[in-house]
């Protein structure tokens, strides 16, 4: 492997700098660090502590905190594939499927909601959710697809923040099935309901 | 006035340190600074530059960036009064009134949406919006008032972020009347619609 090199002496013993094990340990630690502190307060030093490696090794692999985050937020499925899973099925329950798939994704892959939180502090739309929602509204063939994707974005990000980042009660303590029941009609309306201008 | 004192030499000439004019200028500058950079990236130095005063004067008046922010986010009307204005009128249009009053408030008083953004990075609920929404759901006498207030919070914060902090298109460029039309039914449903568990 081109990136494998001898571990410098200051790295802790027992792990080889270039081993895939180290790289995976760093990614796992980074997910925990970003989930615990959010993007802005997370530090490479904190990731290094969790992964029990030297911070220099993280810079060696990933270059910067930004690039480490880009690696961590990669979805387990691509955003278009995710969107098409949501669209597959009756249109009248697409809002319910979106709520359920989003909650499953956030639980299984915290960087997905961390990306949404980071979009607030960085004042830029999160890339993957935008692709997901634009793909969904285009596949549905509804009028004003970009507006609808934006309305859904505004509710999805609010749910993610309320549940995970801020911990608003009782949203953060009810079951996901209850959340699906509460949010499905809102998402359904934003996606397929009549909007002024249709 | 007890807080009036001789301006130190390093303050720019032409303004007296303790004058109410200076205090107002600092508050106006702070609103601009927080609106431009959000709470976390805003600096006392930046406020001082905008207000054309020495940073020391800001610490003299307000003690810290946190306390300056607490001063700046004070609503033009108290949260309970704001809530009762929203409730006053037919219950079937309370969602519409909430959307309209919120947008008017955010436009007239940017610290109100900045507080919502800051609640994300500080990972704590914003105090005033919570009081507003709890007061509204209690006054309406609906079942599950706390849950409903939380659901509304999650949509209101998403709208504020989409429109002001992130600038999601087309949300940030359509008129407020259009936004009221898009969001009123969602807020109405969260506030008064049937929820599982009612």
SSE inventory with pairings:
The structure is a homodimer of 198-residue chains.
Chain A (H helix, E strand, L loop, with lengths): L19 H22 L2 H8 L3 H8 L2 H8 L6 H9 L6 H15 L2 H11 L5 H14 L4 H22 L9 H17 L6
Helix pairs in contact in A: 1-2, 1-4, 1-7, 2-3, 5-6, 5-8, 6-10, 7-9, 8-9, 9-10
Structural notes for this entry:
- The structure is a homodimer of 198-residue chains.
- Chain A is an all-alpha fold and 198 residues long.
- Helices cover 68% and strands 0% of the residues of chain A.
- Chain A is built from ten helices and no strands.
- Chain A has helices spanning 20-41, 44-51, 55-62, 65-72, 79-87, 94-108, 111-121, 127-140, 145-166, 176-192.
- In chain A, helix 1 crosses helix 2 (44-51), helix 2 crosses helix 3 (55-62) and helix 5 packs parallel to helix 8 (127-140).
- The N and C termini of chain A lie far apart (55 Å).
- Chains A and B meet through helix 7, helix 9 and helix 10 of A and helix 7, helix 9 and helix 10 of B.
């Amino acid at each position: 492997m081109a990136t494998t090199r001898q571990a410098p002496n200051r790295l802790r013993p027992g792990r080889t700098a270039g081993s895939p094990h180290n790289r995976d340990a760093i990614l796992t630690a980074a997910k925990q660090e970003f989930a615990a502190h959010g993007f802005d307060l997370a530090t490479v030093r904190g990731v290094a502590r969790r992964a029990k490696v030297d911070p220099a090794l993280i810079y060696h692999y990933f270059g910067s905190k930004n690039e480490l985050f880009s690696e961590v937020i990669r979805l387990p499925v691509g955003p278009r594939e995710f969107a098409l899973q949501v669209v597959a099925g009756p249109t009248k329950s697409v809002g319910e499927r979106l709520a359920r798939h989003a909650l499953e994704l956030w639980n299984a892959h915290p960087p997905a909601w961390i990306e949404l939180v980071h979009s607030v502090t960085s004042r830029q739309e999160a890339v993957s959710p935008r692709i997901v929602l634009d793909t969904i509204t285009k596949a549905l063939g509804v009028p004003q697809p970009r507006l609808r994707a934006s309305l859904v974005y505004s509710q999805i990000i609010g749910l993610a923040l309320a549940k995970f980042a801020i911990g608003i009660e009782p949203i953060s303590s009810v079951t996901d099935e209850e959340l699906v029941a509460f949010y499905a009609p809102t998402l359904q309306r934003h996606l397929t309901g009549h909007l002024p201008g249709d």
